[in-house]
Amino acid sequence: MNWLGILEWHDIVFLRAWQHPSSSELVAAGAGGIVVLGALAALLLITAKHWWRPLWRDWLTSLDHKKIGIMYIVLATVMLARGIIEANVMRLQQLLAVDAPGYLSHEHFAQLFSTHGTIMIFFVAMPLLTGIINFVMPLQIGARDVSFPLLNAVSLALTAAGAALLMVSLVIGKFSTGGWSGYPSFTEKPFSPGAGVDYWIWALTPASIGSTLTGLNFAVTIYKQRAPGMDLFRMPLFCWVSLCTSILMIFAMAPLTLATLMLALDRYAGFHFFTNAAGGDVMNYANLFWLFGHPEVYILILPAFGIWSEVFSTFSGKTLYGYTSLVYATMAIAVLSFTVWLHHFFTMGQSADVNAAFGMATMLIGVPTGVKVYDWLLTMVFGRIRFRVPMLYANYFLLTFVLGGVTGVLLANPGVDFSVHNSLFLVAHFHNMLIPGTLFAMFAGFHFWFPKAMGFRLHEGLGQLAFWLLAPGFLLAFFPLYALGLMGGMRRMAVWSDPSFTPWLAAAMLGAMLILAGLCVLALQLVVSIRQREALAVPVGDPWDGRSLEWAGPAPPFEWNFPVPPEVRSRDAFNDMKRDGRAHSAPERYHDIVMPKNSAVAPLLGLGAAICGFAVTWHIWWLTIASLLGLMAVTVARSFVTNVEKTIPADEVERMHRAWLDRASATPAIPRRLEATTDNRGKAEVPGT
Amino acid sequence: MSAPAGAEPSGFLWAAGPVAEMQRAHFFQIVGWMAVVVVPLFLALPVILWRYRAGAGDTYRPEWQFNRLAEWAIWGIPILVVAVLGVTLWRYTHALDPYAPLGPDPLEVQLVLTQDDFVFLYPGQDVALVDRLLIPAGRGLRLRMTSDSVMQSVIIPRLGGQVYAMAGMVTELNLQADAPGLYQGRNTQYSGRGFPGHVFTAEAVAPDSFDARLAELTEGAPALDPGAYDRLLSFGDHGPRAYAGLAPDFFERVVEKYAGPLHAMEKASE
Hints:
The complex is a heterodimer.
Chain A: H1 13-19, H2 23-48, H3 52-60, H4 65-96, H5 106-140, H6 149-171, H7 196-224, H8 237-269, H9 282-315, H10 323-336, H11 352-380, H12 389-412, H13 414-420, H14 424-454, H15 460-486, H16 502-531, H17 533-536, H18 573-580, E1 593-596, H19 601-617, H20 621-639, E2 645-648, H21 650-666
Antiparallel strand pairs in A: 1-2
Helix pairs in contact in A: 1-2, 2-6, 4-5, 4-6, 4-16, 5-6, 5-7, 5-9, 5-14, 6-7, 6-19, 7-8, 7-19, 8-9, 8-10, 9-11, 9-14, 10-11, 11-12, 12-14, 12-15, 14-15, 15-16, 19-20
Chain B: H1 18-51, H2 68-95, E1 107-113, E2 118-122, E3 127-130, E4 132-136, E5 141-147, E6 152-156, E7 160-165, E8 171-175, E9 181-187, E10 199-205, H3 210-218, H4 226-233, E11 241-244, H5 250-269
Parallel strand pairs in B: 1-5, 4-10
Antiparallel strand pairs in B: 1-2, 2-3, 3-11, 5-8, 6-7, 6-9, 9-10
């Protein structure tokens, strides 16, 4: 018996590069080196600074929704760095490979487009939006935590396990070349015999299960944990999109989990779900995958719509225009998103009637989306618009998103889709939606809520600089791809034969570099902001004259969020509290607060899932069984733990809350024109009071 | 790579046949209608940002949140545009149905995709061409396709496309070239290391010289017997080549290789 399964020494990237020192293998070894050195540096730093205990006690075992949210965002940030570097590596290959081989092998290039897509969707966009919802939504509905705090931590741990497996694949073995969608029959054993597709399967499976659990958790939280008076139609729009996203997660992730597991059965156990022969059918995979994949698109974009709604309203100093319309539009989009999956394969040979029906359903989504765009535009009318960083992203989003909408409607037409399916036109379209739509919304949300989470604002000037790099960067990186797609340039090409592509590819390269530069400035901004945290501090907690309940308490918030559940009388609850003079006031009585205790269950399950994924990828069966038994043991052991809650005495709550109230009353309220200065300590001047 | 040097663009905007021409017309029609929704935003946004910027002193109504007329416009106009586009979508989708034959007497060609080659079978003429498709200009082509490998997708951008080819299944693509010329075709679905070079040349010739050109290309070529076909299935791009002599049910046998008993049952029930 081989204790290492099918793993061999030359699977390690450094040995591969040693044996075959091609430029492609050296790039791979460099990437592997960054992973190993990065991990070592992190371990050394934590040890040197004696951070292990606080890391374990305050973060990894914490069930606080705010900390879990922040950890999701940290995870996403690490993966985003990898995804953007990979994008630049691929751009350079395509630029150099016009009538030339370039510096990457075709197989390496295929691994890169597969990891890039997988990472950006499942380990950047999903954790970012899950993290932001985790942090913001319970605060906005006036809750103390999500309904199932431990489950929340488990979801994070499962997602992190998938991400860890993706990182390991840079050092040991090779990743799938089957793209982020992993279409069989190419990903079946006969055509993809190595461990790459298995890495892809076992990275995705825990992450997709984690997202299903997150969806359940968020939906129950919104239904059951709202503060008194917080009717559904008084919820901030961000909570509405969180609810719709959760419902989509509950119903849409399951087909993906199923599809990857069925593919695993094909590959490991000789099943024939999606094989060419013996009754297997690749079309079943396409249907299952996109039954997940299309709602997934709206899982990615709806939270962004929520962030934009908060940003437009707050930085226009005005209530949202057409709140009810926006709610119905969001719901309509969520429902319609389940009816259009077939448009991802108009080209599979079904009848014109079927294609036309799905094409029209797809265009129908354009209606509520268009309504939303005009609702945001009208939110600014009669407002007082302040161009803080989130607002720059928001307006840039309006301009670019509608262009992506036009190309989306084009692609919804089967006749047009036939000519641009699988082309760079499509690649440009979905990046057009996901970068100004999702990613920039997450950046806007990051700037918007960072002061609430950390207690200090991010450096405004560097934030603006990053925006002015990212904004032209996106246009340069992706609008040439529209042109290339119309010129017949297809996606996933490691080399080109058409010299007329070169100028377009050069522009795209420049754009990718600007995006990378923008990301570096964001990193610099974080460092500078941390160093200047005293000057940028906003302890009173309301730096932007916020309108919803998350701004009602201090920054960072108390572990228990609210001393007593806030009483909600209207939409824009905190805004009205400020106008009524109810903000920053002590409750009549303080009570004991019961909060969940820390638990090591989630990190242990995450570790077990990562080990299990690695073991099963490399057919190391003893380790697979051992890790599965470990996972079960941890789960069973947890069920015997009855003492899972801690009580924070009323005295303690009162002491902390009054200390903050005293600070708030001693802090001068500032007008909006001083918002971006160090005078801003988190207390907003309320006109007329 | 067997592609001609791509001196001229090969996208459908440079249409060279009725299908791609219609796709191009449809494309610009949609762009035009979508402008109705998009242009107002581009005009209004700068005005709004300027007029309502903080400190500009224009009307400030923080509670303003509804206007019946605006509501009708922002729901009504997109609904009208989508309704119009829906009608055109229905029409064009049927007109551009890849299964709809072009003309009364299209040329029948069958296509088997291996992982790296396109094998075009001319059952009427009993010959086969690899990585080269010969068609008469001005006459429809009915291309019936299957894959003897992974799923792939076939397009000739200047003529039209694309449709997937899958093992054990037959799909169809009807195309036509208006004038003689060389048009690049390719697989657009990632199929492995050889994917970038997975191209073929469609050569359209005057209808009266079609037979002579096909005979010229296949003159003295070997038969596509099982041995020759197995060599084509082996890894790597085998480049343009020709075969004369073809088993009569060659295409069906490739399909049934994968379709197996299930397919036979379906056939029996028909």
